[in-house]
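pls ignore typos typing on phone
adenosine-5'-diphosphate + seq
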Amino acid sequence: MSQELFYKSKEVSMIERCLLASTEIAELDVVNKTTVTEAVSRIDEISVTHLIVTDHNGISIYDSAAQNSSEGKYTLLPEIVQALRGFDVFTWNYHAGTMHSHAATPIYSYGTLIGSIYMTEMDTQQGKLIQTLQHNTFLITLILEIILVLFSLSFSNAFTRRLRKIMASMRIIREGDYTHQVEMGGNDELTVLGDEFNALVEKLQTSEQKRSNFVSDASHELKTPLASIKLLSDSILQNEMDIDTVREFVGDIGNEAERLNRMSQKLLSLSRIESQADSDCEIVYIAPTVERVIRMLSVIAADNAITIETDLKDDCSILILEDDLYQIIFNLVENGIKYNTPGGKLFIRLMRNQDNAIMQIRDTGMGIPADSLSHIFERFYRVDKARARKSGGSGLGLSIVRLIVERNRGEISVDSEPGIGTTFTVSFPVFDTEE
Ligand code: ADP
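k done
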């Protein structure tokens, strides 16, 4: 029988016996120790450990206990107090291997409360059951707690070990070894953290590689004009030469200095673009900027007898920094003039479709060989080094263009046929002013 059912049936049986005894006592003409003792002895079913009968004030009239009898004294046990208020009461407690059940009911005679009856029963068998249960519960709890402690210890050990692994890797990276990767294993948050860490390190490695390539390329490129300047000035100092030759040499020095100046300008613009925040953008119409570039380069175009033709749609507005847009158009148009043939043409077309503004810059120049096409956007790449040097090229113009285009969600492509000409196509998502 379950514990709950056991207590329920115990309650019913003890309350029933209390009521039986109280009916018997209620029928007595005189209620005193003698009459109550007689009445109680008549009820066979009563068989309890301890029985007390009180009057309506709670003074004990009858007490079955052989020692420390409560008879004649106020016996205000909690159950008796409740019974004298008119309630049937059942309580139980467990103490030292024995279960104690207590029940009390009021005694009514002709509707008047004349006293209460209280009984106690002790049950060692049920007590033992509870004791075993308590013991088992204690054991199970202890085992569970030990398992829990062992589990938490091993878990926190594994966790700390893996965290230390990440920290050790961080130290290695900090010391400059960007090839290092952390191997976490498992399939939890720390594994994800490890993967993120590795991705970050890879990115760091790539940008470090780019940075060091850039520095070595830049110093190499700067070295050439500096060496020329040194050579020319040494020649002037060490050789007897006529004034015209000196003039020519000084002119060359001036050109090299000018080239250095242009290169450092471009390097500065590269670093400005790389550190620029996207939030600096504004909505810009492309056509006016194209016209501004043409005005700026018209003198060089005229010097090379290059005719510029335009077909510009006015409604092409994009989200970009105006200086950046200017830089893109300037570099492409300048190349279209620089690498054109004397008397050649340059066509600038600006159109838009549903989503994009498209700009095409086509020249009738020398063109770019097929094997160079995939390299022309690389930093310091020049198809014909000697020619480019003569034209003052740094090999940075197109890499700046591509960087700006990509940073502004645009695309750039090139199409060229040696001897016929080159077409650069740049497109950007359209941003209308209302948007
Ligand atoms: P540069 O400052 O040398 O012009 P760019 O990055 O602008 O550097 O161009 C890279 C190389 O691509 C140039 O050196 C040139 O050889 C080639 N190039 C660029 N534009 C054109 C063009 N319109 N026609 C032919 N070749 C071009």
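The chain has a mean pLDDT of 89. Residues 331, 335-336, 339, 363, 365-368, 376, 381-384, 388, 393-399, 422 surround adenosine-5'-diphosphate (CB under 6 Å). more later
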